[in-house]
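User: Run a structure prediction on this.
Assistant: Running it now.
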Amino acid sequence: MIDRLWQDVRYTVRSLSKAPLFTLAAVATLALGIGANAALFSVSDAMALRPPDVPNPGNLVRVFTSTKDTPYGEVPYPDYQDFRRQATSVSGLVAYETADFALATTREASATYLGGWLVSANFFTVLGIEPALGRGFLPNEDIAPAPVAIISYRLWQREFGSDPTVIGREVLLSSAPFTVVGVAPERFGGTELFFHPDLFIPLSAIRTAYPNTPATILDNRAERWLTVLGRLAPGISANQAASEFTVLAGRLASNYPDTNRDRTAVVLPEMTARTRLDQGGAAGVTVILGLVGLVLLLACANVANLVLSRNAYRLRDVALRAALGATRTQLVRQLLTESVLLAFAGGGGALIVGGWAIAYLSQVIIIPSALPLWLDLRLDARVLAVTAAATFVAAILTGLVPALHTSRTSLNAVLKQRPDPLPRRVTPRTALVVAQVAISVLVLVVAGLMVQASSAAQRVDPGFRRDRVLLLSFNPGLVRYDPARAGAFYQRLVERTREVPGVEAVGLTRFTPLGVNNGSLTLLIDGARTPEGQGRVSVAETLVDSGYWRVLRTPIVHGRAFDDRDTATSPRVAVVNETFATKFWPNEDPLGKTVRIPDVPGPNGAQTLVVEVVGVAKDGKYQQLAEPTRPFIYRPVAQSRGGALTMAVLAAESPEAIVPGVRAAVAEVDANVPVFDVTTFDDLYHGRALLPSRVLAQIVSALGVLCLILASIGLYAVIAFLFARRTQEIGVRIAVGASRGHVVRMVLRQAAIFVVPGLAVGLALAAVLTPLLASPAFDFVTPGDPLVMTLATVVMTAVAFVAATFPAVRASRVDPVTALRAQ
């Protein structure tokens, strides 16, 4: 058996080497199709599919606290501790929270801004992560504040030059001394898809790193801020764990009704939880994988057509082998061997194509943030497995149909060398070309819809100006400023920045509109018409100062903006947007209305703040361009605890030109406060708000172009083959008076037999499938848009016409004398 297989391989290699153009075309086609699958699977994997980089990720679950309005809420630290002590369905339960730090490797060095996690001390143990150097956290480091840290492998290389003596070294985190006790393994970038922490410190050390944090943070059941992961105990399913946590949550609701009433627990497998939290990302991945699968089918159809056409030239050889005693099984095996070798060669080329595409996409898909946020695209074992699977599929799809079709060839018909008539019925070649055209039309329609959606996103009015605005972010808390000192820092910073030449206005905000971060606030709205039983509502919010309105030009349509009257000691005020006013106080004047902020930490415990509405701002976009109008509330920076803020600077001309002057102003105020995320608002807007629609449009458009190329090659190959076999007939037609135009029209009519049905099938598929894109995952997409479908039809027709014209012109130039002499 091995000898026969080796004989088939040697014969196939000799055969393919004698047809270099065919071999190159087939291998290149498969390399493009399989390579596109590899690259876009890597994107999909990084966006939604890749499990956490921990041992046995399949038995990880995520624990949420849930209410009617917030089905997937975070967990307060006391609840986490109770769950951890009482739950038997999990072998371990960990908690973590994202944080930012200012890292100084020595007391003399300037601080570097980076992002990390506050984690429970059992984090590395439960997840099964062994540090590359040093140790993990110890159990007692969950009890007393422990100023120790574990750094990421990436940070170890970048800031410490891979120095193995880093263990035991003291560094400054937010100006507080911490001891490095471990280095995380190289491949461990956290358990989330986009955030890859640079370092880890115990939750118990939160006030060591952040002294302004309320002293009750680890005792307050109303403060829901932790992500909780559990590892299932042996033999326990996620459903069984969910049942136990429901009972535990009910017990907490009974024991602590003020904070836990009407609140239960939800337990989901980690991969399911990701999908629930990011349904848009999961839907986008589904579309990408579906389209790239179609591209692979198109590539396979193309190669199958090439193989069919080539096999037609070898029918005499196949017939002679059959006449000499070769069985049908032997003929099919020989032909399949050729397809398998082509697929393997294409798979090898796909690794090159996929690697290049992944490297390119890594440079294109960039999340604008100083935090360690990125899409971790890899050519790893998972991508290689997908490439291998695609190669196997390609081998079967490209070889089976041609092999079966060729092995059924009539011996007598071939030996008589009678030319086949032009196909008037469905043949394998006809069906494959029709399928290629149909798939191409479908992908072109989807690409057109995505491009149209991206264009629509660019036309959205976000409700604020973004040109000529420079953004700089600060967090004085990272260098241990208390709220009063932080307020003084920002006041001096704004005053000094206004003096920089070329600066027109300066403003402060907690959350930049359409930026990476956003906030929400729980309110009690006095006199509001809220649904019965819904006393508290959660609304999006930010902090701003009086200069914010002058920089971003968000109109105040009623009342006033903040000004010098709104100080830390004056009555608390707020500005709401139009939707807030009309939703909660319809047909009433919102000015003078009050809202209450419950559970605010104060010197004497939790308190409720009363806030008066003094203005109404025009609606805008706050988190996403496609979001519906939603209630929003602005509060004054001066009446908050300070903390991290972004300074927005309006330049008279170019914002880039004022960067040196603004940085100098910051250094004059306090050079120790780290500055990060220095960018223009335009760059942030294009890199954050427009990034998803733009990247999706680029990816799908690239697939559409690839489909056009493959379909045109397939159509060209089939038409060229059909009329190459009819050279003698065409010569006779020309000899008896047929004009060259008549021959060209005959070839183009034959092409229409393939193209018209393909267009019809493709448009029908687009009409049926594109309505699935009408979801929040695909902003601004208009399924069934007649202009897009018309353009897709015109483009496919034009490409098909060009592809068919070349063999048509060549057929019309047949020399009748040569053709008749050959007959």
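The first strand starts at residue 60 and ends at 66.
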